[in-house]
């Protein structure tokens, strides 16, 4: 054995393996979740916001009576009608708004630059952020459904196939939102301007995608614009889960179109993955 071989075999680095990208990413999920819940503004404007809006809609519009798919047909309460849209909005806020603002702030205060000097790769960083969105998204959806059933008296589906649909729409919606949030974080020029850039974009999308307004009542051109973005499809998928079948006639094509929901969300998932990888930098290019 040569001296070089002996040094390699018995040196201080022998037998030491650096953690892989996956293990580093998974280990960051817990840290990201703790950091999220330690930020009061993030918790209020992303985690609790759907609860607040459901309460406002239920209190403000319940006196107007039930919403019906057509005159003479059985209707549902205002809270029951808006629940699917608010579930979709929760996914969008937890993913796009939360990550776009959070990463822009981390970039502005130098956190990303310091992380760039560690063994942490962008892939591991992505896993930590996306994992945090899934954890908080699951908690948010579970608590919102619990509040809907116990506080607002909204009947939840009992058919297993409805919950299967909920699961895949939720997974695709959260994954798409998280990746688009990472990509959108490159747009703000600084951490201070992140909220001013991100929030108006998402607010407009929520209004035209059937979250705060009844989608069937919007002009056709506005429905067509909303169809270009993932939130409309997330909300439509959730309506297919939580609204009676009679309400499918109110959709743009008179049906739930779950196949197109899957296609649209998968397409945006791929777009978000490509954009997030192309645009992400530990520091701004113009820094």
Automatic annotation (TrEMBL):
Keywords on this record? Antibiotic resistance, Cell membrane, Membrane, Transmembrane, Transmembrane helix, Transport
Q: Which organism is it from?
A: Agromyces bracchium
The record ties this protein, via InterPro entries, to: ABC-2_transporter (IPR052902), ABC2_TM (IPR013525), ABC2_TM_bact-type (IPR047817), ABC_2_transport (IPR000412)
Pfam families, per this entry?
ABC2_membrane
Q: Which family does it belong to?
A: Belongs to the ABC-2 integral membrane protein family.
Q: Which GO terms describe its cellular component?
A: ATP-binding cassette (ABC) transporter complex
Query: Is Transport set as a keyword in this record?
Result: yes
Q: Which GO terms describe its biological process?
A: response to antibiotic
Membrane-crossing segments per the record: 42-61, 81-105, 133-154, 166-187, 194-215, 258-280
Q: Name one GO molecular function term.
A: ABC-type transporter activity
* Keyword Signal (UniProt): no
Q: Which PANTHER family match?
A: DOXORUBICIN RESISTANCE ABC TRANSPORTER PERMEASE PROTEIN DRRC-RELATED (PTHR43027)
Chief localization: membrane
Localization recorded for this chain is: Cell membrane; Membrane
Membrane topology note: Multi-pass membrane protein
Q: What name appears for this protein in its UniProt entry?
A: Transport permease protein
Which residue intervals define the domain ABC transmembrane type-2 in the entry? 41-286
At the highest ranks, the source species' classification is:
Bacteria, Bacillati, Actinomycetota, Actinomycetes, Micrococcales
């Amino acid at each position: 054995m040569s001296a070089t071989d002996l040094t390699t075999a018995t040196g201080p680095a022998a037998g030491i393996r650096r953690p892989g990208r996956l293990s580093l990413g998974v280990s960051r999920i817990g840290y990201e979740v703790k950091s999220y819940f330690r930020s009061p503004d993030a918790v209020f404007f992303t985690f609790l916001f759907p609860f607040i809006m459901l309460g406002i809609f239920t209190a403000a519009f319940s006196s107007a009576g039930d919403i019906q798919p057509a005159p003479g047909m059985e209707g549902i309460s205002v809270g029951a009608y808006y629940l699917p849209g608010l579930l979709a909005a929760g996914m969008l806020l937890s993913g796009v708004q939360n990550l776009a603002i959070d990463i822009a702030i981390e970039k502005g205060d130098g956190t990303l630059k310091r992380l760039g000097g560690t063994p942490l790769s962008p892939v591991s960083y992505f896993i930590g952020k996306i994992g945090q969105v899934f954890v908080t998204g699951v908690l948010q959806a579970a608590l919102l459904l619990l509040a809907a059933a116990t506080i607002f008296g909204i009947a939840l589906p009992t058919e297993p196939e409805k919950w299967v649909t909920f699961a895949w729409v939720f997974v695709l919606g959260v994954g798409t939102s998280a990746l688009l949030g990472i990509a959108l974080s490159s747009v703000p020029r600084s951490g201070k301007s992140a909220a001013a850039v991100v929030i108006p974009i998402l607010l407009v999308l929520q209004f035209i995608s059937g979250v705060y307004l009844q989608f069937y009542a919007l002009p056709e051109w506005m429905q067509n614009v909303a169809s270009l973005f993932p939130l409309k499809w997330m909300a439509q998928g959730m309506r297919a889960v939580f609204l009676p079948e009679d309400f499918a006639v109110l959709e743009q094509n008179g049906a739930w179109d779950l196949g197109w929901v899957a296609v649209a969300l998968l397409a945006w998932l791929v777009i978000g993955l490509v954009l997030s990888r192309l645009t992400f930098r530990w520091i701004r290019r113009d820094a």
